[in-house]
Amino acid sequence: MSPSRPGPSGGGPGAPGASGDPRAPDAGGYGAPRRFWRALDRRRPPGVATLDRSWRSPLRGPWLTAVHGSVLLVALPLVIVTGLLDYAAYGPRFGQAFPHDVGWLRLPVFDWPTRPAWLFRVTQGLHVTLGIVLIPVVLGKLWSVIPKLFDWPPARSLAQVLERLTLLLLVGGILFQTATGLLNIQYAYLFGFDFYTAHYFGGWVFLGAFVAHVVLKLPRLGTALRSRPFGAELRTPVAGTRPEPPDPDDLVAARPAPATVSRRGAVGLVGGATLLLAALTVGQTLDGPLRRTALLLPRGRDNGPGPNGFPVNRTVAAAGVRPEETGPGWRLTLRAGGRTVTLDRPALLAMAQHTAALPIACVEGWSTRQTWTGVRLRDLAALVGVDSLAAARVSSLEKAGLFRTAVLAPNQVLDPDSLLALRVNGVDLSPDHGFPARVIVPALPGVHCTKWVSDIDFQGRADG
């Protein structure tokens, strides 16, 4: 055993504390109640000793754990913050973010901005892309500390119980959030519960555990990183790879085997896997050549030819919108107070047309920038005579689904690039992209850019 690791009884016959005096120093590092922890140590479950001897990699230790941890320390806050921002983008004050009722975990109320127009594209793209590319780093960090998850006794003091609890929530939280997130972006709802609710509350549990873990372990991380020069460690070949000295957390193997991989190789393996996932993922949030490398796109890379050849999240067939509903008999109904205006598509095309190049971004992480043409939403609000706009409720011909209606905030309706789009890239919208008319608003989540629009109810502040 390493000098810092107690034997099964927590100390030999001559060790301090072996007399049974609870006030004496304890060689096993036990805190109060010491007798309880020592009794646990004496009653080791079958196989614990064998398992403890099986962790023999000489690479495990504070330095490699700290390298992985420092990457996660920088990247995970970005994943957390972008996730919370994306929740805010759905408009929780209008009751259209999921889950609706979050109690005291609700975010401050504010209108999601329309500028910069690429805001949601960046926040959602970062959230999904980082969640995917960090998987090798998470697995590398778990590999480096996995022996600690099987320690016996599981704790040696009440303070360590709290530390282990935060570790359990941290490990369980990141595995749960990653696994369910991956299934969600691939539309594989195998888990039998509402993804949005579980992901939101699971995110808060993980955030609490993450903050607690950082507070507890940040000093150790700094000490471990300073213990071995990064550049020198990455130049060390397999033949020169040696175990680290015994550490207070017992990360170093008690009986290390000869090295078969250097720490340079271990870091390179994790880094290479991270870069590979980035290459397979990042193209889904970018237009251009990198989109051809986005093999992990949930809807694939073949979106058809022509100006309408960009990703579709929900097709017209999946939405159950029939051809006769979008044919010549289609009408758009505008309402404000007691006033109603009905327009057909030729009437909309006869109005002043505005063209804007805007991105559309989906919760699954893909996004694309296209050129949209149509009538400004603020012109439609003026046409129906709305004063002092409070909100606009947009309804689709789609009969069911979580997002068949969307409520737009005043800043989203009044933005000069917010459109009821009739055409895209110089041609009519295809049925899958929302023909005869769809909403497109800068920085708005794609599911709220309602397709197959049938009604827009402009609500004034006096109505509100």
Overall geometry: elongated
- Count the helices. How many? 13
Percent range for β-strand residues: 5-15%
* Number of beta strands: 10
Q: Between the first and last Cα atoms, what is the distance in angstroms?
A: 71 Å
Q: H/E series, N to C?
A: HHHHHHHHHHEEHEEHEEHEEEE
Q: Can you summarize the main beta sheet?
A: 5 strands, mixed
Domain unit count: 2
Q: What's the alpha carbon Rg, rounded to whole Å?
A: 29 Å
What percentage of residues falls in helices of 4 or more residues? 25-40%
Computed structural class: alpha+beta
The side-by-side strand order for the widest beta sheet comes to 2-1-10-5-6
Mean pLDDT level: 88
Question: In terms of per-residue confidence, which ranges show pLDDT below 50 for 5 or more consecutive residues?
Answer: 1-27
Helix and strand topology:
Elements (H helix, E strand, L loop, with lengths): L33 H9 L5 H7 L7 H28 L29 H15 L1 H11 L12 H28 L9 H33 L2 H6 L27 H19 L34 H4 L12 E5 L2 E5 L1 H6 L3 E8 L5 E10 H7 L5 E8 L8 E4 L1 H5 L4 E6 L2 E2 L9 E3 L12 E8 L4
Parallel strand pairs: 1-10
Antiparallel strand pairs: 1-2, 3-4, 4-7, 5-6, 5-10, 7-8, 7-9
Pfam families: Oxidored_molyb
Keywords: Membrane, Transmembrane, Transmembrane helix
InterPro entries: OxRdtase_Mopterin-bd_dom, OxRdtase_Mopterin-bd_sf
Q: Main traits of this protein?
A:
464 residues; alpha+beta; 2 domains; 5-stranded mixed beta sheet; 5-stranded antiparallel beta sheet; 10 strands
Please give a structural write-up:
- By secondary structure, this protein is α+β, with helices and mostly antiparallel strands.
- The chain has helices at 34-42, 48-54, 62-89, 119-133, 135-145, 158-185, 195-227, 230-235, 263-281, 316-319, 345-350, 377-383, 410-414, and strands at 332-336, 339-343, 354-361, 367-376, 389-396, 405-408, 419-424, 427-428, 438-440, 453-460.
- The strands form two sheets. A five-stranded mixed sheet has the order 2-1-10-5-6. Strands 3, 4, 7, 8 and 9 form a five-stranded antiparallel sheet that branches.
- Strand 7 and strand 8 (427-428) form a beta hairpin.
- Helix 5 (135-145) runs antiparallel to helix 9.
- The protein starts with 33 loop residues before the first helix and ends with a strand.
